[in-house]
Amino acid sequence: MDVGLQQLRCFLTLAEEQHFTRAAERLGIPQPTLSRTIRRLEDHVGCRLLDRTTRHPRLTPDGERLRAELQVLLPRLEAALRPVPQEEPLSLGYTWGFPRRRGRDAIDLVERRHHVLVQPVRRDERLAGVHTGAVDAALLWGPVEDPRLHTVEIAREERVAAVSVRSTLATRSRVGWRDLGRRCLVLNTVSGTLAPGDWPADARPEIGAEAANLDEYLHAVAARRGVGVLPKSVATQHPDPDVLYLPLTGAPPAVLHYVHPRTNPHPHAENLSKALRDAERPVLQSA
Questions:
Q1: Pairing mode, if any, of strands 149-157 and 254-261?
Q2: 241 with 264, same domain?
Q3: Is 48 part of any domain?
Q4: Count of domains for the chain
Q5: Residue 286 included in any domain
Q6: Cα–Cα distance list, 266 to 87, 92, 166, 222, 279 (Å)
Q7: Closest Cα partner for 160 from 214, 218, 230, 224?
Q8: Residue 120 placed within a domain
Q9: pTM of whole model > 0.70?
Q10: Domain of 138, in residue numbers
Q11: Structural contact between residues 118 and 90, judged by C-beta atoms closer than 8 angstroms
């Protein structure tokens, strides 16, 4: 049996009006078309739905039963088939080191479950634009100390040292945190999370070069202007033929935070926060 929604709408409208002409006018179709539609519906269900022996059509007992069912079911069916209205997209800022698997899994979950578009946006500034309203939320490495922002720790992971393949450190299997203090450091001055002050007072590196983003950072490391330090997952996502990533012992863990404004956050900001924490394929490791 192949019954369409339009046939059901036509029947329910005729049942309410009990007049072919008025029902056809409500539906915006010719009266003969309505008559044919009702007859096809009766053929499909295998019984008479209307008593046509009177001046105005009246419902048969089978017609009354169908009307009672459709008055409940048809509005629910139409609502289920109606396109879900799209909400304003949620823009998710990041500066560098977007956690691809965790981030993409969380975005996919929120988009499927809540029908909202999540748009990752790279912005080379410390807070990725979330503090100015340029984005709705952000994923940030390192501490976030802004009272206007709600901050949630998403994960911690170990760091690695980034050294030039021509560096004397390239022959080592690993390097220690204090060892880097004897080297020059490449410093990300825009969105970096480390500075010489993060090393012990008696083992603080000098600044060998400055960079404004991750690309410049790796170029400086490759040119032997200094060593770098990155979260392990970030290093994995950015292979470079001229840069070697070495395990780094004794280093403080890298901490990934999710932040959004405390005042008037995006309606789905908390949904994304939960999805990030509950991502099924976490790439980040405990330090």
A1: antiparallel
A2: no
A3: yes
A4: 3
A5: no
A6: 10, 11, 47, 40, 20
A7: 230
A8: yes
A9: no
A10: 90-154+258-277
A11: yes
Amino acid at 73: L
Per-residue pLDDT 10s for the chain (287 aa) are 567 888 888 988 988 888 888 888 888 899 999 899 999 988 888 899 888 877 778 899 998 998 898 888 888 888 777 765 567 899 999 998 898 888 999 999 999 899 899 999 999 898 999 999 999 999 999 999 999 999 999 999 999 999 999 999 999 999 999 999 989 999 999 988 899 999 999 999 999 999 999 999 999 999 999 999 999 999 999 999 999 999 999 999 999 999 999 999 999 999 999 999 987 444 434 33
| Six token digits for residue 30 | 């010719």
Q: Is 287 domain-assigned?
A: no
C-alpha to C-alpha distances, 248 to 159, 226, 258, nearest whole angstrom = 6, 16, 25
With CA atoms as reference, report the closest residue to 244 among 190, 166, 181, 187: 166
Q: Are residues 243 and 179 in the same domain?
A: yes
Q: Smallest Cα–Cα separation from 224: which of 281, 268, 286, 170?
A: 170
Can you state the percent helix, strand and coil of the chain, rounding each to 5? 35, 25, 40
